[in-house]
């Protein structure tokens, strides 16, 4: 015999769990104190933040950067999804020691980022158009209407020697 009350209770419990799932993700992430850079897109105000990941004061060799979404203008955070990590915003390690790492974002294997300390602060150094840049942010202008293809990426940072602010554009 079909128990209608039990079916409604199970559905109600599932609905509550689904509503609470984003809240659970929000509190599950440890936010490191040092941002290395962040990645914005033209599609909305959400962005991906990349923070240094230290273990016992040294750079974590397996995962030198922690990446996570900052949503709603900084109102909440969430971890990257499986697809985010594998297709776009994830970080792959080329080589790593306790003091330095070379990585790339999964969306662009050709753009290497060197993670190291400069003047006592962890930074990401990237080479674009023959110039080294201490990376601060990347901005992707997405093609409408579906916003899955990228028109260009602007890379913002500073010259490591002079401190001059720089912006370089990459066109895929």
The end-to-end span amounts to 61 Å
Count up the domains: 1
Largest sheet: 11 strands, mixed
**Proportion of residues in extended strands:** over 45%
Structure, described:
It is a single chain. This protein has 172 residues and is α+β, with helices and mostly antiparallel strands. The protein has one domain. It has helices spanning 4-27, 82-88; strands at 35-41, 47-52, 54-55, 58-59, 65-71, 76-79, 91-96, 101-105, 108-118, 121-128, 131-142, 150-158, 165-170. Strands 1, 2, 5, 6, 7, 8, 9, 10, 11, 12 and 13 form an 11-stranded mixed sheet that branches. A hairpin with a 2-residue loop joins strand 8 (101-105) and strand 9. The longest helix has 24 residues, at 4-27. The radius of gyration is 20 Å and the shape is globular.
